[in-house]
Amino acid sequence: MTPALSPQLTMPPLQCYLLLAAFLFSIGLAGVLVRRNAILVLIGVELMLNAANLNFIAFWRFGPHPEAMTGVLFVLFAIAVAAAEAAVGLALIIALHRHYQTVRLDRADTLRG
Amino acid sequence: MTLPFLIFLTLTALVLGGALAAMMLRDLIHSALALAVSLLGLAAVYLTLQAQFAGFAQVLVYVGAVAIVIVFAILLTRGSDPAGQPVFARGWPWGAAAAVAVFGVLAAGILRSPLAGTEPPAGVEAHAAEVGKHLMAEAVLPLEVTGLILTVALIGAAVIALREKVES
User: Fold this and answer.
1) Span B60-108, pLDDT tens digits
2) For residue B12, is it within any domain?
3) Which of A26, A88, A24 is nearest to B96 (CA)?
4) The model's pTM
5) Residue B93 maps to a domain
6) Residue B26 CB partners (closer than 8 Å, separation 6+)
7) Does A75 sit within 8 Å of B153, measured CB to CB?
8) ipTM above 0.85 for this complex
9) Residues 32-61 of A with CB under 8 A from B
10) Between A and B, how many CB-CB pairs are < 8 A?
11) Phi-psi bin for A101: left (phi > 0), alpha (psi -120 to 50), beta?
């Protein structure tokens, strides 16, 4: 395979992936800060976690030692921990719903000073 | 414009469009479906970066499990969010401004970084067999701890979501 025909050389540069991850993170952050519904806030957190995962994969692919697989391994563990976080978060939302009959964050303000 | 760049732009439109729709739609079910589309696009981006195993794990865990669990949570809490109420919180312009500011800082840092022109090394692929060898060699302790975390999260989620006993 000659270098000119190799698909790696025509890949989009690293900053395209990093900008995509930054935009995805900002959308998730905006959702967390802006939405009233607790489930939508959790979806925003998931989007932010996925943006971080995309950064890990991009840096692994463009980094100097891809054979060490550090980025891929970290993403696998991050996906597992994010799945645990989603399960516990949604269980908390269901408990909140049972207790207050609402999932709106502006109504569940018992701890508010 | 080369084919990989065209694919990247298509997937970017899918990921960002899905994420924006998930955050802006009024109907929660539509939001969950838009989230699934966005995460599926992200899995395709992982595949274009030769991280096959991470891409398929993303499809299995996020598009498969997490999206379904979110849909279940939406159905179980249905009726608590009456129609006609505002979707966005009171101070939402501040939240949106903060998100735009964060994106501005990140984008400025990325565009001015000396890493921007890095060429990817050729012939890199994360085969499942390679990933498995690394998982069983130097990452075996984190793997076991992850299993423990998942067990604890499973039990904890079940306990939290259980029906509370009424004290009489």
Assistant:
1) 999 989 999 999 999 988 876 666 677 787 888 999 999 999 999 999 9
2) yes
3) A26
4) 0.89
5) no
6) B87
7) no
8) yes
9) 32-37, 39-40, 42-44, 46-47, 50, 53-54, 57-58, 60-61
10) 268
11) left
